Structure to design on (169 residues):
């Protein structure tokens, strides 16, 4: 993340949290809930997205292509739905700020698991909880809970929080 939107960082190597307030090579700890505990992730992709309604579709398309490239065709449909739900939450959080800020999609994978993260800058007072099944809005986390092995939220820097989920591959 270098301040521009649409930047893509994909490749092999350790998990790299980059961007304002994040040091190169920093990895979230297990207690943070960010899901990327000190693992040397062989596959990493990051896409910075502007705070625009079209960001969700761009994130889905990016995830679909990256996961096919990585050989994870079996989980693509569920993963793309998870990306959609997590990015929608991140975009909604960004839009509540006085000045909406970019959001980030990050995919991390090994031969056993896929972590999907959506980052936003609403780091104060966030609360994620399951909603009643008859609620008109806010059922996205129920979808995330149903399709993933586990999920959580954590502040990953002074400027970002990540909502993440894990999918077995």
């Amino acid at each position: 993340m270098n301040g521009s939107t649409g930047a893509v960082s994909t490749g092999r190597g350790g998990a790299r949290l980059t961007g304002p307030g994040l040091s190169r090579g920093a990895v979230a700890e297990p207690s943070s809930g960010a899901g990327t505990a000190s693992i040397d992730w062989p596959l990493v992709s990051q896409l910075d997205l502007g705070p625009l309604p079209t960001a969700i579709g761009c994130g889905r398309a990016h995830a679909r292509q990256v996961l096919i490239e990585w050989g994870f065709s079996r989980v693509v449909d569920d993963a793309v739905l998870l990306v959609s739900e997590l990015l929608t939450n991140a975009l909604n959080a960004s839009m509540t700020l006085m000045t909406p800020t970019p959001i980030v999609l990050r995919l991390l994978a090994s031969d056993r698991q896929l972590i999907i993260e959506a980052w936003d800058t609403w780091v104060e007072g966030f609360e994620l909880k399951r909603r009643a099944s008859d609620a008109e809005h806010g059922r996205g986390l129920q979808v995330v809970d149903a399709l993933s092995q586990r999920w959580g939220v954590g502040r990953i820097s002074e400027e970002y929080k990540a909502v993440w989920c894990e999918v077995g591959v």
User: Anything to note?
Assistant: Strands lie at 8-11, 17-19, 22-26, 43-49, 103-109, 113-120, 150-155, 161-168. The domain at 8-168 is CATH 3.30.565.10 (Heat Shock Protein 90).
